[in-house]
Amino acid sequence: KKGAYPYYMLKEIDEQPGVMRTLIQEYVNEDGSVKIDQELLDALSKADRLYIVAAGTSYHAGLVGKELFEKLAHIPTEVHVASEFAYNPPLLSEKPFFIFLTQSGETADSRQVLTQVNEWGYPSLTITNVANSTLSREATYTLLLHAGPEIAVASTKAYTAQIALEAILVKAYGEAKNIKAAKDFDVAGELTKVANGMQELVDEKGDIEKIAQDMFATTRNAFYIGRGVDYALAQEAALKLKEVSYVQTEGFASGELKHGTIALIEEGTPVVAIITDPKTAAHTRSNAQEVIARGANVLFISSRDVAAEGDQIILPEVDPLLSPLVSVVPTQLLAYYVSLQRGYDVDKPRNLAKSVTVE
Ligand code: M6R
């Protein structure tokens, strides 16, 4: 039920702090250790490389997962678009382990890959929101997102739930393998900070509603730029804006923009710069200056520790690897308001279905 909400998308955006808390309750013990099936951890521990396979928003959650697995647990991780992997698989390592990320558990492109993986005889895990879904039944192991039904076609809370559960899994894996960076990672504490930060952001929706009106009312195209996890987030933010508002939007690595795409910047083109990483903040700011010099209208979304004067949205501080969990919130709200202000049905964008069951 959407209750007092005009659209499910807004309700589902607002539910995200609660989803973080539910995941902590479901998967983390009082003492901070993680409750995950030992058999799954044993199988994961034997792998020499992880292959995350997914589509759309779930693929974008996989991009953040790669950072978590590699930086905190030191296991090489590849992320693949399911429809590409299906008919053009990469060379696999000797002991691969497959992770399927899927809100619905029914995406045909991912099912095609899992069928192949099962034929090869490799172990797999499906991370999904739907118990007993096809991908859950056909994989060796399943972890549930516990995000509650996601009705809006545009995925919001499933994205944040997937990243949070990846972080929890990384913690468990790191404990099992005795890896210091993962052992030192207080996943419950960090996700609680995230939940509080998300709450601050959803409580300030009015700011985003106004930015949508001021910067995006009539634009036909837009860009998101960032580096590292901010680039991963830029890709998700762009998908969200384009699918519900039909504004042609691309997410770019900010350093790559000058290698061609900058030719598209015109007077008034909206560019959203996501800046959360101190290592690259100055670089992304200088890329933003390059587009400002060509007439772009830049919206800066930055975390408190790297914020500069004049930045319009300041994000609460969280662990840098988890920053997409908070930076995504204003981008989801922006997509919602741009769509609403243009008079579209936000929950049911044209040409799209909630789960894509054809290849
Ligand atoms: O159910 P899945 O997570 O497997 O779905 C994958 C994509 O179809 C899905 O994320 C799609 O991109 C959404 N409309 C994005 O908002």
3D structure, described in words:
- It is a single chain.
- The chain is an alpha/beta fold and 359 residues long.
- 48% of the residues lie in helices and 15% in strands.
- The chain has 14 helices and ten strands.
- It has helices spanning 8-14, 16-27, 38-46, 56-73, 82-87, 108-120, 134-138, 157-176, 180-183, 187-203, 205-216, 229-245, 281-292, 323-341, and strands at 49-54, 77-81, 96-102, 124-128, 141-144, 221-226, 248-253, 270-275, 297-303, 313-315.
- The protein has a five-stranded parallel β-sheet, with helices on both faces. Strands 7-6-8-9-10 form a five-stranded parallel β-sheet, sandwiched between helices.
- Helix 7 (134-138) links the parallel strand 4 and strand 5 (141-144).
- Helix 2 (16-27) packs parallel to helix 8 (157-176) and helix 10 packs parallel to helix 14 (323-341).
- The longest helix has 20 residues, at 157-176.
- It starts with 7 loop residues before the first helix and ends in an 18-residue tail after the last helix.
- The model has no long low-confidence stretch (mean pLDDT 97).
**How far apart are the termini?**
31 Å
**What is the overall number of helices?**
14
Query: What assembly state would you assign to the polypeptide chains in this entry?
Result: single chain
Mean pLDDT: 97
Strand order, biggest sheet?
2-1-3-4-5
User: What is the radius of gyration?
Assistant: 20 Å
Order of helices and strands: HHHEHEHEHEHEHHHHEHEEHEEH
Helix content: 40-55%
Q: Count the strands?
A: 10
- Form type: globular
Strand content: 15-25%
- Which hetero ligands occur in this complex? 5-amino-5-deoxy-1-O-phosphono-D-mannitol
Main beta sheet strand tally, sense and closure: 5 strands, parallel
Stretches with pLDDT under 50, minimum 5 residues? none
Structural class label: alpha/beta
GO molecular function: carbohydrate derivative binding; glutamine-fructose-6-phosphate transaminase (isomerizing) activity
Enzyme class: transferase
EC number: 2.6.1.16
Keywords: Aminotransferase, Cytoplasm, Glutamine amidotransferase, Repeat, Transferase
